[in-house]
Each structure stands twice: as C-alpha cells, then as structure tokens.
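#struct-help
A.M.: can someone run this one for me? Single chain, 205 residues.
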Amino acid sequence: EKGLIPRAIKPLLDRRMHYKRNPTALNKEKAAGLKWVLVCSYGYLRFREFKLGLGRSHMAIGAYARETIVDSFHLAEEKGFDLIHGIVDALYIKKHSMTEDEVRSFCRELEVMTGIPVSFEGIYKWIVFLPSINDSERPVPARYFGVFHNGDIKARGIEVRQRSVPEFVKQFQRKIIKMMAECSTRQEIIARVSMMAEVLKETAK
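D.P.: on it. Structure tokens below:
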C-alpha cells in the first residue's frame, strides 16, 4: 500500500519524466528543477523538524535503491552487457557494436522489472571516469566527462561544473574537452597533446 511520501512525490516524478521524454530547451530546465525538488524530498525525511519524518523511511529508501541497482546489474549481464559503472540513478553499460534499439529494449525491460521510470540518455563514443583522490586505480562515478555519438558533451563533478573554480580554468577545460570530443580513440587524443599545450599557453596569457 502506498504511503504519504510516494503519493506526494509521484505527480512530480511523472511530470519530470514527461519533460525528459520531450527534451526541448524549456523542458530540460523544468526537468532539472523538479530533480532538485525530488532530491530534497528524500533528504527532508531525516530533517529533525519534519513532524512526519521517520528515520526508518529514509533508510528503507536507501535499502530498496541498493537492491534495485543490484537487480539492474544482473539483468544487464543476462542481456550480454558489460557493466562499467552504477550509481543511485544511473547505469553505464557497454557491448560490442551496441545499438540504440538494443539499449532502449533493455531500458523497457528494466522499467517493467523495477516499476521505476527508466530513460535512455544516449550512447557514448567514449567516457572517462576520473580516479578517486584516495585511490588512483579506482574510478568514481560522480566525476566524469564524455562525448555522445551525436557530438554532445556531458561532464559532471569536474572544474567546468564548479562555481568556485576561476573562469580561465573553466575556459581552458571547455576548450580541451571540445578538442577531445572530435577524437574517437585514445591515440587520436594523445596526438593532440601538443595542441592542447598551446591552448593552455594562450588561455593563461
């Protein structure tokens, strides 16, 4: 039986998924706004001044989330995908000659299995997960940048996304990532290192 919290946030979740399935410039902004409303609603469950808050509800949501992501891993493996990364609300998978139809089919099956709306963001040409500060051999899912096959760039957790970083650092990083986005292989990126060094000199002037 659905309780108060699911009943309260479901309309917001449904509206956000509607915006994500119809990605106009305005809808993207609306979807981003609703994302933070939903994120805050989760954290608010443990806020000491929330009269209807219950710590066990907050813990239960985390437990269901962990169980769901593990089930998602298993389904992906059953479908022949290799797992790259998984985090609370995202799953990164790969497969040789992977097609969009194949991934969308997996998303639909995952949505049926979990009962949670699942959206397909795209197929990356390449993606880089940056290493943990404490362990250089261990990548973290919250800090990455990559380029989709359609040329769009996505970055999270790096300097270009941080307000406290000087603007010239952001400008340099944007230029470098755009140069890398034109490449398809590691060798092509390495071949442009000297050009990137020139960009650094120009940006630092």
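A.M.: thanks! The radius of gyration is 20 Å.
D.P.: also worth noting: The chain has a mean pLDDT of 89.
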